[in-house]
């Protein structure tokens, strides 16, 4: 929105937009038509991005779309059991999900990335033997790299579990144990915390 009255949907993100946005550093300008220039870029990335001979320009609107996509991929999470995988392979919301117990809610292993699994495919058969294929079909947060990129806290006298990402500062996930209430919100600058491995 340019006037906070009329709103329109952002276009879907493409892999090219995400690749271009990853090369940009610094904060957003607040103007969707602002065009970024590539200043600090290595030779390999330059060759890939400038294939057609002319320097590509990326508008802030495209950078915003790509950043939202990056955040959703990296830190969009759900509690274990909130979604089920059917024997036919489709994924749907679990209508019987009544929330995690307080003990389970305090463990990182009880939360999954809500994206296509990557680490799950690399597990051995012995590791997969303990998993339930209907609920454990996504990547768990406990194996995120770098280790320690999530904080788990109890709020409101232990009635709400809050997870915060240290990789994307400003991402907060909440879950009220023993209820269906959970969700996440991002209030940040749109910049990934690349210094995190040195801070841990």
TrEMBL record:
GO biological process, one term: cilium movement involved in cell motility
Family matches, as InterPro entries: RSP9
GO cellular component: axoneme; kinocilium
Compartmental location: Cell projection, Kinocilium; Cytoplasm, Cytoskeleton, Flagellum axoneme
Name by which UniProt lists this protein: Radial spoke head protein 9 homolog
Family annotation (PANTHER family): MITOCHONDRIAL RIBOSOMAL PROTEIN S18 (PTHR22069), RADIAL SPOKE HEAD PROTEIN 9 HOMOLOG (PTHR22069:SF0)
Domain of life (superkingdom): Eukaryota
Organism of derivation: Aptenodytes patagonicus (King penguin)
Similarity comment text for this entry: Belongs to the flagellar radial spoke RSP9 family.
UniProtKB keywords: Cell projection, Cilium, Cilium biogenesis/degradation, Cytoplasm, Cytoskeleton, Flagellum
């Amino acid at each position: 929105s340019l006037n906070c009255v009329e709103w329109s949907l952002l276009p879907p993100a493409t892999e090219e937009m995400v690749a271009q946005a990853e090369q940009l550093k610094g904060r957003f300008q607040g103007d969707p038509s602002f065009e970024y220039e590539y200043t600090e870029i290595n030779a390999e990335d330059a060759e890939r991005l400038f294939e057609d001979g002319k320097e590509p320009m990326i508008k802030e609107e495209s950078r915003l779309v790509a950043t939202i996509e990056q955040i959703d991929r990296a830190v969009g999470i759900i509690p274990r059991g909130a979604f089920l995988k059917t024997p036919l392979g489709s994924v749907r919301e679990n209508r019987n999900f009544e929330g995690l117990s307080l003990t389970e809610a305090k463990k990182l292993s009880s939360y999954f990335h809500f994206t296509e699994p990557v680490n799950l495919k690399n597990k051995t058969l012995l590791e997969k033997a303990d998993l339930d294929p209907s609920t454990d079909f996504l990547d768990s947060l406990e194996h995120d790299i770098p280790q320690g990129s999530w904080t788990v806290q109890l709020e409101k006298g232990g009635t709400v579990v809050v997870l915060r990402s240290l990789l994307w500062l400003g991402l907060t996930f909440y879950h009220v144990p023993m209820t269906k209430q959970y969700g996440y919100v991002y209030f940040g600058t749109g910049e990934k915390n690349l210094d995190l491995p040195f801070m841990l």
